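Researcher: We are triaging several targets before committing to wet-lab work. For this one, the compound of interest is zinc ion. I'm pasting the protein sequence and the ligand SMILES. What I need is the predicted three-dimensional arrangement of the protein with the ligand bound, expressed as C-alpha cells, so it can go straight into our comparison scripts without reformatting.
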Amino acid sequence: MSYKYFVFFLAIQIKNFLRILRISGGTAFPGLIVEKFYPKVLDELAINFSKKIIVISGTNGKTSTTNILKNIISNNDIDVISNDSGSNLKRGIISSYLDSLNTFGKFVKNNSLMILEIDEAILPEISEKICPSTILLLNLFRDQLDRYGEIDKIREKWLLTFSNSIFKHSQLHINADDYLLSNVAQNFTGSVYYYGVDDPLLEDKSSDPTIESNYCYCGKKISHSVRYYAHIGKWQCDDCENQRIIPTTVATNIKQDLNSVTFNLNSENESHHFTLSSIGLFSVYNAVAAFSIVLNLGMKIEHIVKGFSSENNVFGRQEAFVIEQKRVKLFLVKNPAGLNQVIYALTQKNYYKDTLEHKLKKINILFALNNRTEDGKDVSWIYDADIERLSEHTNALVISGMRAEDLALRFIMTNRENLIIEKNLKKSVELILSESPPDSDIYLLLTYSAMMKYRKYFAKISGSKPFWVNSI
Ligand SMILES: [Zn+2]
C-alpha cells in the first residue's frame, strides 16, 4: 500500500469509527488528518470530480440550500457526495471526499456529483484549487467580524477570484436581490444565472436595523424600490447603471405562517406551487437558489417536484421535537440579519391578525448565546437585531449560554422585566418547559456551539437519533 492510500485508509477508518461512536459525526477530523499528511488531496478531488462540482457560499443559508439541492438531485437517481452536515472549512470538504473512496482509498464514485458548502472566507482559495463547474452565491451579511473583517474584504476577494478566466466554462448562480453580489456577477468570466423574489406585497416598511451600508461600488447610494429584508430587494444605483437584473428563476406569491411558507416558482414558461416545511422568506431564497441550479443542469420543474417531496428539515436549522406535549423548534442564529428573519417570521403580522386567539398567543423563547470561535467572539451583533420586537411578542423567556448576562442586558434595555437567566443547559430546558403553557410552541434561538449541545440533549430526551446516524 502506497503512502497516499495508507493516509486515506487510516482517515476512512477513523471516520467510520467516529460515526459508530457517535462522537462528532466524523465530519471534520478525518479531513484534518488527510490535509496534514496528504496536502495534494484537493488536486486529486478536482481531477476526479472534473466538471461535476457545485459549490455554495454566502453568509446565511449554506447548509439548508446544500441539503435542498442534494435532496432534489439524489431523488432523481444521481449519486451525491456532500459535506451536508455543515462542516464547511477545508477539512470538512476533504472529509466529504473520503466518501467517494473505497475502504482502501481508491476513487470509486465516477458517476457522482459533488455538492459542497464552503465558508465565504475560504471560497476563493478552494475555488481556484478545484475549479467548480457551478458556483452559487447566496448573500452577504455582516457576520463574525472578528474572524474575517468587513464583508467588503470578502467581496473584494470574491471579485478578484471570480474574474479569473479559469472559470470561463463554469456557471455562476447569484441572488439578483443582493446588490452586494452584483459586481462579482458582472465580472464573472463564465455564464451567469440570476434568481430572486418578485412579490411587492412582502415589502418591509419597518426600520430593519440590519441594513448594510447601502452604497454601490461606484461610491454612490443604492436605492430600493422594494426592500424585502435587510438590504435584500429590488435595487438600483442612484448614479451609475448598476441595477438589479431581472431573474430567470423567481419566486412569487409568497404566503407565510408559523409552520410553513408557500410560493410559486416561475422559470421560463413553467410555474409550480411549492410548500416548504420551514419558515421565513430566507427559506424561499434558499429553495429558489437550489432550483436555479437544478433547472440549469437540464432538469425540469417536475424533477424538482419529485425531489422536493422528500425534503426534510436540515440538521440544526429548523428541527422540531415534541416534549411534554409542547412543540420545540430549534433555530440557528449567528448574525443580526438571520436573527431578524427568524424574529419577523415568528411574530409576523399576518399571523396575528388571523384570529383573536392567535393575537393573544405569545411565543416562548429560550435563547442561548455563546461566543466560542465557531460562534464568533464578538457578541455585539445582538444590538443590531430587533430584540425589541422579539421581547414584545414573547411570553416565557429563558436566557442561557456563555454570554447570558450580555443577552439579558440587551433584553432589559427593551424594558423587559420577567426573564430567567440559567446557564446550565439541562436546567434551562426544564425552566422553559415549565414556564410555557400546555400545548404551546417553544422556540430555541441558538448560536452554533449552543446548537450542537442543545440538539444532542433534545435528541436524548425525545428519543430521536443524532443527525449523523442517518448517514451511516
Ligand atoms: Zn453605482
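Researcher: Any quick observations?
Model: Residues 350-360, 468-472 have pLDDT under 50 and may be disordered.
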